[in-house]
């Protein structure tokens, strides 16, 4: 395959398209400015920005609900925390590995998926991710709308008696999310950088409220932390493994589309350290807030309130309720827009880059978030943890493993940026734009976990479905692609098409 010299430029191990390549691709059917690799000058996110991104996304109501939901399912508080820590350490591995391509080449997730699935086949993977993100978008808007409805009900008692109040609140909060998402990546960076410290203060405030009210009725921290597990004898591993799969699934979406954010990192060190500092530590800390406050509500109100919106509604004080609602709104916004709009917006844009922009994709995501009916997904703790999270995680595990096998084992981290945006002449075109071996890998890797979901005797497989699918896909994809050389970029070819730029200081 003949290549033009200097189609991509490399400085300090980071690559970008040359200006002449951008000009050539400008009217290409598979290229637009939103999907184009970020220029080196646009990679401005340092360690703090990436850590703040994860703090903003991790301090969210679903994190709180995950911890307290595991307690509602029967685990003790410390078992729930261990479950969450272990799940996040596991998912951090594919997340860090898949981040590398975004930082090195500046490509977003739908373009990254072209490597394994083919230029047209990437639609399958990016839309699958988009559907899950739309579901999460709807869930977060429903939670935020519920908080808004609760605080209005405290301030205006007649509002609480109106059945339509929740729907008005939901759509008001939904509109706010869509409007901010419409602003783009720099608005997200600004919001996360300022939101992270605010969320830390509000988390401490929630703990202080719980502790103060527990002490007011003559109880102590020990009464909260000494609550025993309530699962039935012999059911521990079923709950623990099911919860672990759900916890992995919680961020398995970002383990796929993390290039959407790592593409803005200044260096590999920045993205690595930012994620290591931001994800597991924050998830564990806020999960503890969830179990602590849930335990306190059992003492204060005589029942465990696993939904923080319900806690806000029970506080009674208009000022406290207002502060609580503000906290829930900020937590929901910082998570929802970054985690659940960027991926589907880029994925939808990838369907027809010349006609669909990121902004159009963001608006479409908003509509889909309503159509998914999030109020049903959050009807019970069981529906949330073992239904929603546990099911989609089975389908995403194989994708994470396949991308790792493709980028590290098969390609040796060498990518031809220009060819990612070409048509039939591209090395990533495969056959008719699809790599069938990637599709076969996905299907074969997901069969066992899905069978475990529908066949009672195999339920133990579904309980660890994400891990099983993840490992199977690495093996299967590597075997299927063993003799497939047409899409590979050799070291000599890479040297031919890459122009070395001036070394520069990376702050």
Characteristic key phrases:
single chain; mainly alpha; 23 helices; 507 residues; globular; 70% helix; Hydantoin permease
Task: Write structural notes for this entry.
By secondary structure, the chain is mainly alpha-helical. It has a single domain, classed as Hydantoin permease (Orthogonal Bundle), CATH 1.10.4160.10. It contains 23 helices and three strands. It has a three-stranded mixed β-sheet. Helix 2 runs parallel beside helix 13 and helix 19 packs antiparallel against helix 20. The chain is globular, with a radius of gyration of 23 Å.
Brief synopsis:
The chain is mainly alpha-helical and 507 residues long. Helices cover 70% and strands 2% of the residues. It has one domain: Hydantoin permease (Orthogonal Bundle).
Radius of gyration: 23 Å
User: Mind telling me the CATH superfamily name?
Assistant: Hydantoin permease
What is the approximate shape?
Answer: globular
Beta-strand share of residues: under 5%
CATH class designation: Mainly Alpha
Structural class designation: mainly alpha
CATH architecture: Orthogonal Bundle
What oligomerization state is this entry in?
Answer: single chain
| Low-pLDDT ranges | none
Give the number of DSSP strands.
3
User: How many H/I helices?
Assistant: 23
Report the mean per-residue pLDDT as an integer.
Answer: 84
Arrangement of strands in the largest sheet: 2-1-3
Question: SSE string, helix = H, strand = E?
Answer: EEHHHHHHHHHHHHHHHHHHHHHHHE
């Amino acid at each position: 395959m003949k290549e033009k010299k200097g189609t991509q430029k490399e400085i300090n191990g980071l690559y970008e398209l040359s200006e002449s390549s951008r000009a050539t691709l400008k009217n290409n059917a598979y290229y637009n400015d939103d999907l184009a690799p970020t220029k080196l000058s646009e990679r401005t996110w340092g360690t703090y920005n990436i850590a703040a991104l994860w703090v903003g996304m991790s301090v969210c109501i679903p994190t709180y609900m995950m911890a307290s939901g595991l307690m509602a399912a029967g685990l003790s508080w410390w078992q729930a925390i261990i479950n969450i820590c272990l799940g996040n350490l596991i998912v951090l591995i594919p997340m860090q590995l898949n981040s590398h391509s975004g930082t090195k080449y500046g490509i977003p997730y739908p373009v990254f998926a072209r490597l394994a699935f083919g230029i047209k086949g990437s639609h399958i993977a990016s839309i699958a991710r988009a559907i899950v993100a739309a579901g999460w978008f709807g869930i977060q808007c429903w939670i935020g709308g519920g908080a808004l409805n609760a605080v209005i009900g405290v301030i205006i008692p007649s509002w609480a008696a109106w059945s339509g109040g929740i729907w008005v609140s939901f759509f008001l909060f939904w509109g706010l999310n869509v409007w901010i998402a419409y602003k783009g990546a720099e608005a997200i960076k600004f919001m996360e950088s300022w939101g992270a410290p605010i969320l830390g203060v509000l988390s401490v405030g929630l703990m202080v409220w719980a502790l103060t009210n527990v002490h007011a009725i003559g109880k102590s921290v020990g009464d909260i932390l000494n609550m025993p597990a309530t699962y039935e004898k012999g059911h521990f591993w079923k709950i623990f493994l099911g919860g672990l799969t759900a916890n992995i699934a919680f961020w398995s979406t970002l383990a796929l589309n993390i290039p959407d954010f790592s593409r803005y990192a200044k260096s590999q060190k920045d993205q690595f350290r930012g994620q290591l500092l931001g994800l597991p530590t924050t998830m564990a800390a806020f999960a503890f807030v969830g179990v602590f406050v849930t335990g306190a509500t059992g003492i204060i109100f005589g029942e465990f309130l696993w939904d923080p919106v319900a806690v806000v509604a029970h506080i009674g004080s208009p000022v406290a309720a207002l502060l609580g609602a503000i906290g829930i709104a900020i937590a929901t916004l910082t998570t929802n827009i970054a985690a659940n709009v960027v991926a589907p917006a880029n994925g939808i844009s990838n369907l027809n880059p010349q006609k669909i922009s990121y902004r159009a994709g963001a608006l479409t995501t908003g509509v889909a978030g309503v159509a998914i009916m999030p109020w049903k997904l959050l009807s019970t703790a069981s529906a949330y943890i073992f239904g929603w999270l546990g099911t989609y995680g089975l389908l995403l595990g194989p994708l994470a493993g396949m991308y790792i096998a493709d980028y590290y084992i098969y390609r040796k981290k060498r990518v031809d940026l220009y060819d990612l945006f070409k048509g039939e002449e591209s090395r990533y075109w495969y056959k008719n734009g699809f790599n069938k071996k990637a599709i076969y890998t996905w299907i074969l890797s997901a069969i066992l976990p899905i069978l475990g979901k529908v066949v009672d005797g195999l339920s133990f497989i579904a309980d660890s479905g994400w891990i099983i699918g993840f490992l199977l896909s690495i093996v299967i994809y590597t075997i299927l692609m063993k003799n497939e050389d047409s899409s590979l970029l050799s070291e000599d070819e890479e040297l031919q098409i890459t122009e070395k730029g001036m070394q520069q200081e990376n702050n």
